[in-house]
Design goal:
Length: 358
Amino acid sequence: MDKSLAKSTILVLVILLLNACGRPAAPIITTLSMTPRSTPDPPTQPASKQAPTSTPSLGFITSTTVNQLEIIATLTGHSNRVISLAFSADGVHFASSSRDNTIKLWDVQTGQELHDFPMKEVSLNGIAFSPDESILASPDTIWDIASLEVFHTLEKGRQVPGQVAFSPDGSIFAVALAIRGIKLWDVASGQTLLTFEKQPDNDAFSIVFSPDGSQIATSGHEGKVRLWDIETGQLTGILDHGNTSDVHDLAYAPDGKMLASGATDYTVRLWNVASGEVIHTLRHGDGLYSIAISPDGTLLASAGVESTVRLWDIASGELLRTLRHADELMAVTFSPDGKLLAAGGYDNVIYLWGIPEE
């Protein structure tokens, strides 16, 4: 046999033998296209990580595990800053709104974009899932998740940014519109139930239902948080930061006894709802946009201009961990199962933080 032919035959046999023995396959990482601003490179997920998941492969985010947090995945696809984030109650879907005039629906398990809802203006628009995960809402449109079709159009063509929230039982949809005040809508019929009295300094940066559904809290200018009775629409209390800062975000503790408010005076106030007294004052740093409380009620996350998410122990008011990002952050939220923390802002990217279990 020719020597060169013999060498080629041996080489082929060696390659076949190596393949038969099996080599570990390289991980598959799905990325979506984006048009980023000119900013420093953001943190990226390690190449060995798989897509984000809410399965037992992730640990719970608690006061004793925050130091184990790392970026599980990044979701890219928005072409302008991310304004608002929301998980569905079952943790299957994730939504994001952006100043690129879109609301995107994502699959949490794979990190894939499922749908893009174009909007006329979402520069300050909030988004929310209904408690039964069947619908996704913005201040003027409600979509059916299964069909991706419009379920209700509330005020077509108004182009006024606002914030939204569902009652805990999902029967009432609250909309707080900049300049136009607060309205409650019946989810089934799309009819207006109640219009709250407009306050002169309340441009509705945030609106949240109490966990028992009896009360709504709203925030706006002049450092004030207002508490409203759902049945009557009457103002029942005011929590005052004592300055003229804008109160950008609100979050109730799961038991409804405490309310957190984050303001542009760089502070988060933790309030006793019954007494109106401040329990803790947390100093985030530079301008603060968003706050969130973990599902177990033990942690508070704050995010803002200084490109960080800060994690606080609610009981003690102690700062536990600072998560650094590439640019200013406008939104932060926990997943319902307490295994993911999502943050997004000026670099158009959504970061999912979690605790991988070995």
